[in-house]
Specification:
Largest sheet: 7 strands, mixed
Distance between the termini: 26 Å
Strand content: 15-25%
Number of helices: 15
Number of domains: 2
Number of strands: 12
Shape: globular
CATH topology of the largest domain: Jelly Rolls
CATH superfamily of the largest domain: Regulatory protein AraC
CATH architecture of the largest domain: Sandwich
CATH class of the largest domain: Mainly Beta
Structural class: alpha+beta
Helix content: 40-55%
Order of helices and strands: HEEEEEEEEEEEHEHHHHHHHHHHHHH
């Protein structure tokens, strides 16, 4: 097995990207509602301020970019305090597939920004995304990763040139950039002593988490996970709890039920999901699913859309999120 971070990032990829190119003259401010897709902003020229989901204002200068991995609500403005117009109120004109010019009032001079919606193949309640910060800034991370500015420059050139195939190239660049941002943040940009980040930095525990995420359908026992770490069952359980912040059984159950939710959201029958996860009876699987997700598999599948079901849980606020807590 390669390093744990590489193995875990194998399960995280972009399924779709849509870009908007904005030309904004001061004063301006626009609000972005919460969404399932991640949000990405890149300041090509000029400057901007980002109001984070928690309310803090962050300055963005030319060449800076911000990734909001869970797509939380936020504001982008020429300076703090300007009344914000919802982003979806602006008109759009397609430049090429997946790239739009955002028609902003008085759009001449000022700031040129690239904003994007990035759809991961996992939803925002997944343990990996839950452990990430609400905002990742490239200005903080580029000091330790010289490839980040080059990737941003390449993305900006693709948008400006309006060439055939720009949408596909941008999607691939965004995939590489996202993985680079996450890797650099894990290695240099956070000081968490528990959770996924600490586990990835810990080679022994990291190997265990990588194995769980690579095979979520496997019914992992404590003994099997202890063998991966190369220690006794009791020693493994104590170390896993100390580093990750929850028991191995709880973490495995959450990852497995996340996989079940993905399958159900794609229309797979409950009985098939239960069989894939190794349950002898559909009823046993349904009880486990409801205990962790907060809704029965049949209720979830009736939505016909996994993202919609996740939104229903998230809309419950702290109660809904408590049904699927972050592994801290």
């Amino acid at each position: 097995m390669t390093d744990p971070l590489t193995e875990m990032l194998r399960g995280l990829r972009l399924d779709g990207v849509e870009y908007g190119r904005c030309r904004l003259a001061e004063p301006w401010a626009t609000s972005f509602p919460a969404q399932e897709a991640a949000r990405f902003h890149f300041i090509s020229s000029g400057s901007a301020w980002l109001q984070t989901p928690s309310g803090e204002w962050l300055a963005l200068r030319p060449g800076d970019a911000a990734l909001l991995p869970r797509g939380d609500a936020h504001v982008l403005a020429s300076e703090p305090g300007i009344p914000a117009l919802p982003f979806d109120r602006f008109g759009r004109k397609e430049v090429c597939q997946g790239v739009f010019d955002v028609q902003c009032a008085h759009a001449c001079g000022g700031t040129v920004a690239l904003t994007a919606s990035m759809r991961f193949n996992i939803d925002k309640l997944h343990p990996l995304l839950q452990l990430m910060p609400e905002v990742m800034l490239t200005s903080d991370l580029a000091k330790n990763e010289p490839s980040i500015p080059h990737l941003l420059d390449a993305m900006a050139r693709e948008v400006e040139m309006d060439r055939v195939g720009a949408g596909g190239i941008l999607a691939r660049l965004a995939d590489v950039l996202t993985a680079t941002l996450i890797r650099t943040w894990v290695e240099h940009g956070c000081g968490d002593t528990t959770g996924w980040i600490a586990a990835v930095r810990n080679p022994e525990v990291g190997r265990v988490l990588a194995a769980i995420h690579l095979q979520p359908e496997r019914d992992w026992s404590v003994a099997a996970l202890a063998r991966i770490m190369g220690v006794s069952r009791s020693g493994f359980a104590e170390r896993f709890l100390r580093v990750v912040g929850e028991t191995p059984a709880r973490y495995v159950a959450r990852v497995r039920m996340h996989q079940a939710r993905q399958w159900l959201g794609k229309g797979m029958r409950v009985s098939v999901v239960a069989e894939r996860l190794g349950y002898d009876a559909e009823a046993s699987f349904s009880r486990a699913f409801k205990r962790i997700i907060g809704a029965s598999p049949s209720q979830f599948r009736k939505k016909g859309d996994g993202d919609e079901a996740v939104r229903d849980l998230a809309d419950l606020g702290p109660m809904g999120m408590a049904m699927y807590p972050a592994s801290r």
